[in-house]
Amino acid sequence: MKSCITCGMPFEGDHANDIGLETADGPVCIHDVQDGAMKTPEDIFEGGVQFFLSVDPSGDRALAERLVRKNMNGLAYWQSHPFAGLQGPVATDEEFGVVMAKL
Ligand SMILES: [Zn+2]
Fold it and tell me: Model's pTM, two decimal places?
């Protein structure tokens, strides 16, 4: 199964046609692409924060940031393209599991 290299979103179901860009590293979803190019790591990070805030209406931005780090740090692309935003506190497996169960 293909998934977005920068956010991990699987291209299946409602998202089967959401590939915005094919790169040498793999496909990138439409949410992480702007004007035909991959968004900056900081913009992709912020997009993830907004996504998790939309899933968890508690509005806990610190938690959302930790969830994004947990997600992005687990992706091969970011392991080979690290950036400053990924340094910092990371959500626990339990916190991540609670949110993923809501998707
Ligand atoms: Zn993506």
Answer: 0.93
- For ligand 1, the distance from its centroid to the CA atom of residue 90, given in whole angstroms, is 19
**From CA 39, how far away is CA 98, in angstroms rounded?**
28
Burial 59-92 (b: 16+ CB within 10 A, else e): eeeebbbbbbbbbbeebebbeeeeeebbeeebbe
d(CA 8, CA 101): 15
CA dist 85 and 66 (Å) reads: 10
Gap from CA of 19 to ligand 1 centroid (Å) = 8
User: How many angstroms separate the CA atoms of 100 and 70, rounded?
Assistant: 12
Domain ranges of the chain: 1-37, 40-103
* Residue keyed to tokens 């790591």: 41
What does the pLDDT look like over 18-30, one tens digit per residue?
Answer: 999 999 999 999 9
